[in-house]
């Protein structure tokens, strides 16, 4: 084989290798950006949820004899969850704080069933719709975020792309997991305020 053919082959291999390298690196950049962008959407929906909690607490508090300890627990959990989102970059810690908020709201829901007078509060239907929409938004944004995390983590583990990930210290991302049943109990405010008069 003539030297110039060997040279061309070597150059072709180098070009392909360099092209693959940059393609693989740019793929990681794109996936990391998708994870970051989808987390921002999760954060927006969590903020929306946190903004609704004071409305929920103040509405339920209109039942004059409602147990104050439960309302305070919800408020404290909301404060902790808000602080976790603002100060902590660990997704698992944010999820733990959100699960604590869900648990507190779940206890509020269970206790509020003993207060049928809450169904007479005028704004409960609007609150129900907002909470339902918010929880659905959180679920949708969480699914998108976790899908992007799965794509990134799978890419990091794949051969030979894992070599590029190692060179550039591309780290695995954490999934965002919220306990399902407790979250959904927050949404079901028909049990919180009573079912109301369906004849309207």
UniProtKB/TrEMBL annotation:
It is found in: Membrane. The keyword NADP does not apply. It comes from the Bacteria. GO terms for cellular component: membrane. InterPro entries: LemA-like_dom_sf (IPR023353), MamQ_LemA (IPR007156). It is a single-pass membrane protein. The keyword Membrane applies. Keywords: Membrane, Transmembrane, Transmembrane helix. The chain crosses the membrane at residues 6-24. Belongs to the LemA family. This is LemA family protein. It comes from Gordonia soli NBRC 108243.
